[in-house]
């Protein structure tokens, strides 16, 4: 069991494991709202906004979290405003806003050499890069996320399934949409040090997609996706430590493996159930045919 205990002797790994499990839980629970709203692309887009914000912040001499927070919150609010324009949908708004901010970050990185070092560690995540401050950010965001989910669970669920009907029933659908976008922005900011800019969206989508395959109960989906997110983070970080790969790819690959196994199992179960149903439907016909007297 030394492979299990050895990493825990290193302070950086303990920090990474704690932050990773917090991030995994948040990404899993948030993913259910994102996937059911058909906005899976928002995690990918906001993560790119983080990179742009970090690059611009580094060029101006600010801490990377300052640039990340400003850029991601601005992107989340702009997405909501652009999506309200006539004839546009959320996916178009996400594409317009986040790619523009990502392009701005790339432009800054190309012009300001000092900004490169601040962005490289964010691309794929690294357990070595996770500091006490990163753990504090993840913990603080987890508290905010949990409180928001507890206080606004019913209206958030209502808006997730049908924003128009929710508005008719008195739910402030527009406010709830902004809340979801801001929560997404906060979770992305807390996640990029562990998961990396390029992979954080997968960590949001995969646990929710797995839960969707297993159950249709919303509460059960949130619970299962949270467990899958935490499990993927813990197993992925151990794989990252022992195999020497970045933490982000390791976590995503564990989640993707779990999804593949569950999806294949669900497909096999569906085929078995269908075959059993066809046999049961054919049995009475066969019995009647066998029991008929010969003609003449």
Question: What features would you describe in this structure?
Answer:
It is globular, with a radius of gyration of 23 Å. It has 296 residues and is mostly helical. Helix 4 (64-83) packs antiparallel against helix 5, helix 6 crosses helix 9 and helix 10 (200-214) crosses helix 11 (218-243). It has helices spanning 2-5, 11-36, 41-60, 64-83, 90-111, 116-124, 132-161, 163-168, 173-195, 200-214, 218-243, 247-291. The mean pLDDT is 83.
Task: Provide a quick synopsis of the model.
This protein has 296 residues and is mostly helical. It has helices spanning 2-5, 11-36, 41-60, 64-83, 90-111, 116-124, 132-161, 163-168, 173-195, 200-214, 218-243, 247-291. The protein has 12 helices and no strands.
Q: Characteristics of this structure?
A:
mainly alpha; 12 helices
How many strand units? 0
Instruction: Kindly state the percentage of residues in helix.
Output: over 70%
Global outline = globular
- Please compute the radius of gyration using only Cα atoms: 23 Å
Give the mean pLDDT: 83
Number of helices: 12
Structural class: mainly alpha
The proportion of strand residues reads under 5%
